[in-house]
Design brief:
Elements (H helix, E strand, L loop, with lengths): L6 H11 L4 E5 L7 H9 L18 E6 L2 E5 L12
Parallel strand pairs: 1-3
Antiparallel strand pairs: 2-3
This protein binds guanosine-5'-diphosphate and magnesium ion.
The site of guanosine-5'-diphosphate (GDP) has 14 residues, from helix 2.
Length: about 80
């Protein structure tokens, strides 16, 4: 579904602007659901989801959805949800 949505159209437009693949960085505080969002987009467990508030994603990792889209999972911004009160 998402993987085939106007893929050739978007691919052609990305080539016109000279940015192909398009890099999309998923960012946010630790535990905000970045890895979960990636798993949802890919409809399989590509990224390890954290348990509780401990940071799970420690490195910058890329996942290619197709040859035009590359998504990047990032470590949290350090302001974990445990720091909120
Ligand atoms: N209730 C709820 N929990 C979520 C949601 N998305 C992620 N989580 C939970 O939040 C925790 C951290 O998720 P994770 O994807 O590892 O966050 P990340 O640190 O931003 O990558 C995990 O226990 C997930 O199951 C959501 O939409 N709703
Ligand atoms: Mg993560």
């Amino acid at each position: 579904m998402f993987k085939t949505y106007r893929t050739s159209d978007l691919d052609r437009k990305l080539n016109i602007i000279g940015i192909n693949p398009l890099d999309i960085m998923v960012t946010g505080v630790t535990g905000s659901g970045k890895s979960t969002t990636l798993n949802s987009i890919f409809q399989k467990e590509v990224a390890t989801v954290g348990k509780g508030v401990d940071p799970e994603t420690m490195t910058l990792t890329s996942y290619s959805l197709n040859h035009s889209f590359r998504l990047w999972d990032t470590p949290g911004l350090g302001d974990g949800i445990e720091a909120r009160s």
